[in-house]
Amino acid sequence: MAASTKRNLAPGLTIAQSPIHGNGCFAAVRFARRKKIAEYTGEKITNAEAQRRAHRRVLRISGLDGRYSIDGSVGGNGTHYINHSCRPNCFLQTVHGRLLVLALRDIRAGEEITLDYVDSMHSDQKRCTCVASDCRGTINKRRTRATSRR
Fold it and tell me: In terms of residue numbers, what domain contains 125?
């Protein structure tokens, strides 16, 4: 867990090796259903800048609203290590200009915190490694012609 000693982590979080991918974000304490886990922090950038940065090998960018995104790799608090899962235990919600990570269900201490990325800047062919029994096989949900990005 050397990574956690080099970062200012949000309270109740720790970073450790993930069975899903690389390092992951884990609960150090119990989080109750529908309660705030942490704020997703980092550098606030325009969505145009996010698109420029989207070609990185490892993405730590999350959309905030129609104009801005947060790049968690710059000044983040550990929430940028939240891995994708097709069966997530948390979700993101923008509240008063802040991107909050909220628990979908009760989360035990020691459990990896996961999000369904749904529609990320990753390629639509990027393989999912979440090992959920109902894994869809890709990080992004497959789109129909009516819902595809332009």
Answer: 2-147
Q: Which residue has the higher pLDDT, 63 or 103?
A: 103
CATH of the domain at 20: 2.170.270.10
The residues, any chain, with a CB within 8 Å of residue 128's CB and separated by 6 or more, are: 84, 86, 135, 136, 137, 138, 139
Tell me how far CA of residue 88 lies from CA of 20, 51, 123, 150, in angstroms. Answer: 12, 25, 20, 27
17 Cβ partners below 8 Å, 6+ apart?
23, 24
How is residue 13 written in tokens? 């979080």
Higher pLDDT, 127 or 122: 127
